[in-house]
Amino acid sequence: MKKSIKNVFVLVSICAVVSVLLAITNAVTAPIIAENERASANAALLEVMPDGGSFTSVALDGYTLPATVTEAYLGENGGYVFKLKTVGYSSGFVIMCGVNADGTVSGAVCLASTETLGHEKTFGALLTGKTAENIDAVDTVSGATKTTGAYRAAVKDALNAALILGGGSVDIRTEEEILRDRLTAALPAAQGEFEKLFITESLDGVDAVYAAVNRTGYVLVIGDAFVATDLDGHVITKETAQDETAETAMAALLASELSPITLDAYEGLPSQLVSASRTATGNYDLVIKGAGYGIAGGSAYHPASGEYIYIRVSLTRDGRILDCLTLSQAETDGIGSACADESFYGQFVGKTEETYGEIDAIGGATYTTDGYKQAILRAFACVKIFEGGVES
Question: Of 276, 306, 290, which Cα lies nearest the Cα of 375?
Fold first, then answer.
């Protein structure tokens, strides 16, 4: 019995001594390990900013930065280093980029990727020394457009983020890039590729709806909010005040069905009407053509194309435009061709027969503008006929 107690005592003593030694060892080595980790991290930062000295992590809360920016560090030299996550040919594309205090790229390297051709390993060198003003001049690599295009866009985001963190308010992204970033931030699984849905239902409070090309969900634009849902229309964005609005809108969209209308069954429809459908809720989806410069214009020096402007427009049964889209056009390039820009055709959304003329005309393209407006006017006439016309 005494021997057993003695053995237990010896074992406990050994454990105690080992624990003390481990504690002493940890106390001695922990700072060394931490310093080695810090040095390793600093080395990665120094790779893209050799003159950065030591770096301090920057808290990103309170800044509206491009969605690609995941980490930021301030160097002793006043420059910033950013860790960015983007999508090239595939997801998981991680880039480290340094931006000097003078707004030039100090270096850019790929930290991780699943790209296939290897261009992400060398493309960063082409961006070194570039600024916000000339980075777009760096051509993407033929055959690797997605990879190198995403790389360039991410470095451009780093340049923009440096401006913002430095106290500037300039956003060097285009409107399309800002929209893409906000959509991607709301639904990262879409990998940056979205298509805008054509709306045929009344969606109170909703400005636009985008579907992920890879069918991972939708993003609804509700004022300043970007709200993501899954394919069933359930909100997946965290803590948004627009959940109910988004889910109500998606329920209406997902339940919507279009039934073709037999045009021969109605008298008096304009010959410019190409096709028409009706939703279960009584709205209309029309394709109608307008005679712009391609039909009504032309001269010996500038022949007309001979082609109509094809327009898709959806309206409520009481004549309010829900959505409008230019499907095709062959108007004068750089002038009348602006009818294909959403900044033009988007003006008709919400308009009625009384207000449809209250839009900004296309400068220098009277034929195009007038032809478009005449087509919209005919769309209102079609709805009246469908609602109260006499079937033949």
Answer: 290
Element (H, E) at 157: helix 145-165
Picking from 173, 204, 232, the residue at the C-terminal end of a domain is 173
Domains: count for the chain: 3
The first and second tokens of residue 194, run together, are: 């979205």
Q: What is the pLDDT of residues 81-119, one digit of tens each?
A: 999 998 887 777 899 999 999 999 999 999 888 887 888
Give the Å distances, CA to CA, from 116 to 218, 279, 333, 362. Answer: 28, 45, 38, 44
pTM over the 0.85 mark: no
* Cα 223 to Cα 118, 174, 197, 219, distances in angstroms: 41, 19, 17, 13
Same domain, 158 and 236: no
Q: Would residue 218 count as lying in a domain?
A: yes
Q: In which domain, by residue range, is 243 found? A: 188-255
Among residues 91, 84, 46, 90, the alpha carbon closest in space to that of 65 is found at 84
> Do 378 and 267 share a structural domain?
yes
3-state helix/strand/coil string of 331-376? CCCCCHHHHHCHHHHHHHCCCCCCCCCCCCCCCCCHHHHHHHHHHH
Question: Residue 297: inside a domain, yes or no?
Answer: yes
Q: Both 242 and 331 in a single domain?
A: no
pLDDT digits 0-9 by tens, 233-255: 999 987 678 899 999 999 999 99
